[in-house]
Amino acid sequence: MLLSALGGASGLRLIGVTCVGGLKPVCLQQQRLQRVSRQAGMPAQAATSTIKAPADGNFYKYGLKPVLGEGIMEATLKRLGTVDIKEMDKSNFVKPKSVVYELDGKRRRWDMISSHSSVGVIIYHTELDALIVVRQFRPPAYASAMMLAEEAGEPKPPLSVGFTYELCAGIVDKKKSLAQIAAEEVKEECGFEVATEKLQWVTQYVSAVGTGGSRHDMYYAEVDESMRVGKGGGLENTGERIEVLALPLDESKGFTEDPSYPKSAGLLFGLMWLRAYIAAKKQLPAKHVV
Question: How far is the C-alpha of 226 from the C-alpha of 215, rounded, in Å?
Fold first, then answer.
């Protein structure tokens, strides 16, 4: 299957795809998949792997509303300077390693990055019917966008593409329970006090399976304005400058599908889980809801 950009080749053209010779069955299958995707309301595949900022410069679409720290993104953009990429010397957070293992009697090597385990929290604001989302500048996200643009022969992207949308989360670097660390992150980043016994464990998954393999535990918490105890925003002395946003669930589908709002995989999972959970909770008697 070749993209229609290779349209000089003779063949059958199907919805942005050129079929060549014996590849026609593959293209027909692609046509069927695209038709089903459109009928299901799924977005078309992104035309490029480079990361673009919202064309209209609006970073508060889809009902996104600052809950704490209004204007932090704009203020941080003014504080940011040049961004350069260099080889790592040493780090307190990640360590490059090589895993040597045997397969079929042969010694093989796999390079990895060893890092801390982590926790994340799906926070549902009951009064706003919204998922609490944190937005912050992530240097690796911007560096990746820089490299993609360079490979594509495009100009350096604006610094705004380095701001990612994530769940409240943190690394496991204390001798405390995972629930205690999760509750601390909710207070530190988002400004809400949640008792550990009110945190519901959701699941555990493996992060960056090809390069890291660290464990990430996901929790669920419900908050309202009576639980607000601080300004949140993270630890500014460590470089954190977090903006806390509320994403209304009834507008979250468009947000999910918009690549100009860079999202973590954990956020996408958390949003899908929350929509299903709240839908089930509203449809079933309270005694049947966990």
Answer: 32
Question: For residues 55 and 66, what is the distance between their CA atoms, to the nearest angstrom?
Answer: 21
Please state the φ and ψ torsions of residue 175, each to the nearest 5 degrees: -85, 65
Quick check: 256 and 146 in contact, CB under 8 A? no
Q: How far apart are CA 157 and CA 149, in angstroms?
A: 7
pLDDT at 53 over 50: yes
Structure tokens, 279? 């839908």
Q: What is the pLDDT of residues 114-142, one digit of tens each?
A: 999 999 999 999 999 999 999 999 999 99
Q: Using pLDDT thresholds of 50, 70 and 90, give the confidence band for residue 38.
A: low
Token couple for 172: 């496991």
| pLDDT average, residue stretch 172-180 | 95
Q: Between 64 and 284, whose confidence is greater?
A: 64
DSSP H helices in the chain: 24-39, 72-79, 139-151, 178-185, 252-257, 265-283
Across-strand partners of 192? 228
Reading the block at residue 280, the tokens are 């089930």
